[in-house]
Specification:
Number of helices: 3
Structural class: alpha+beta
Function: May be involved in transcriptional regulation.
Distance between the termini: 42 Å
Number of strands: 6
Family: Belongs to the krueppel C2H2-type zinc-finger protein family.
Shape: elongated
Pfam family, one: zf-C2H2_6
Largest sheet: 2 strands, antiparallel
GO molecular function, one term: zinc ion binding
Radius of gyration: 19 Å
Low-confidence stretches: none
Helix content: 40-55%
Protein name: Mszf37
Strand content: 5-15%
Order of helices and strands: EEHEEHEEH
Length: 85
Amino acid sequence: EKPYECMQCGKTFTSGHCARRHLGTHSGAWPYKCEVCGKAYPYVYSLRNHKKSHNEEKLYECKQCGKAFKYISSLRNHETTHTGE
Protein backbone atom coordinates (compact mmCIF):
# COMPACT_ATOMS: atom_id res chain seq x y z
CA GLU A 1 0.00 0.00 0.00
CA LYS A 2 1.20 3.51 -0.88
CA PRO A 3 -0.87 5.97 1.13
CA TYR A 4 1.26 9.08 0.48
CA GLU A 5 0.42 10.87 -2.76
CA CYS A 6 2.21 13.74 -4.49
CA MET A 7 -0.30 16.55 -4.94
CA GLN A 8 1.48 17.74 -8.09
CA CYS A 9 1.74 14.56 -10.16
CA GLY A 10 -0.26 11.89 -8.32
CA LYS A 11 2.66 9.52 -7.78
CA THR A 12 2.24 7.49 -4.59
CA PHE A 13 4.75 6.43 -1.94
CA THR A 14 4.99 4.03 0.97
CA SER A 15 6.31 6.69 3.38
CA GLY A 16 5.99 10.39 3.99
CA HIS A 17 9.78 10.66 3.86
CA CYS A 18 9.86 9.33 0.29
CA ALA A 19 7.00 11.61 -0.72
CA ARG A 20 8.79 14.69 0.67
CA ARG A 21 12.03 13.71 -1.06
CA HIS A 22 10.13 13.31 -4.33
CA LEU A 23 8.86 16.91 -4.10
CA GLY A 24 12.37 18.06 -5.00
CA THR A 25 11.79 16.77 -8.53
CA HIS A 26 9.10 19.42 -8.97
CA SER A 27 10.62 22.35 -7.10
CA GLY A 28 14.27 21.98 -8.08
CA ALA A 29 15.09 22.53 -4.42
CA TRP A 30 17.60 19.73 -4.06
CA PRO A 31 20.73 21.22 -2.50
CA TYR A 32 23.49 18.96 -3.87
CA LYS A 33 24.33 19.87 -7.46
CA CYS A 34 26.89 18.26 -9.76
CA GLU A 35 29.32 20.88 -11.03
CA VAL A 36 30.01 18.80 -14.15
CA CYS A 37 26.51 18.26 -15.56
CA GLY A 38 24.17 20.24 -13.31
CA LYS A 39 22.06 17.35 -12.00
CA ALA A 40 20.83 17.91 -8.44
CA TYR A 41 20.30 15.40 -5.64
CA PRO A 42 18.54 15.41 -2.26
CA TYR A 43 21.44 13.79 -0.40
CA VAL A 44 25.19 14.29 -0.48
CA TYR A 45 25.76 10.53 -0.82
CA SER A 46 23.55 10.49 -3.92
CA LEU A 47 25.70 13.20 -5.47
CA ARG A 48 28.88 11.30 -4.57
CA ASN A 49 27.56 8.17 -6.28
CA HIS A 50 26.58 10.19 -9.34
CA LYS A 51 30.01 11.86 -9.59
CA LYS A 52 31.58 8.43 -10.06
CA SER A 53 29.86 8.22 -13.43
CA HIS A 54 31.96 11.15 -14.65
CA ASN A 55 35.24 9.60 -13.49
CA GLU A 56 34.95 5.99 -14.58
CA GLU A 57 36.97 5.01 -17.60
CA LYS A 58 35.32 3.37 -20.56
CA LEU A 59 37.56 0.36 -21.08
CA TYR A 60 35.65 -1.61 -23.70
CA GLU A 61 35.76 -0.20 -27.23
CA CYS A 62 33.81 -1.35 -30.27
CA LYS A 63 36.23 -2.36 -33.02
CA GLN A 64 33.72 -1.42 -35.71
CA CYS A 65 32.78 2.14 -34.73
CA GLY A 66 35.04 3.12 -31.82
CA LYS A 67 32.27 3.75 -29.31
CA ALA A 68 33.45 2.95 -25.77
CA PHE A 69 31.64 1.37 -22.84
CA LYS A 70 32.20 0.93 -19.11
CA TYR A 71 30.99 -2.66 -19.08
CA ILE A 72 31.74 -5.54 -21.41
CA SER A 73 28.06 -6.49 -21.32
CA SER A 74 27.18 -3.05 -22.72
CA LEU A 75 29.72 -3.50 -25.50
CA ARG A 76 28.31 -6.95 -26.35
CA ASN A 77 24.81 -5.52 -26.46
CA HIS A 78 26.00 -2.66 -28.69
CA GLU A 79 27.79 -5.02 -31.06
CA THR A 80 24.45 -6.52 -32.03
CA THR A 81 23.59 -3.19 -33.69
CA HIS A 82 26.32 -3.95 -36.22
CA THR A 83 25.58 -7.64 -36.72
CA GLY A 84 21.79 -7.56 -36.48
CA GLU A 85 21.81 -10.52 -34.08
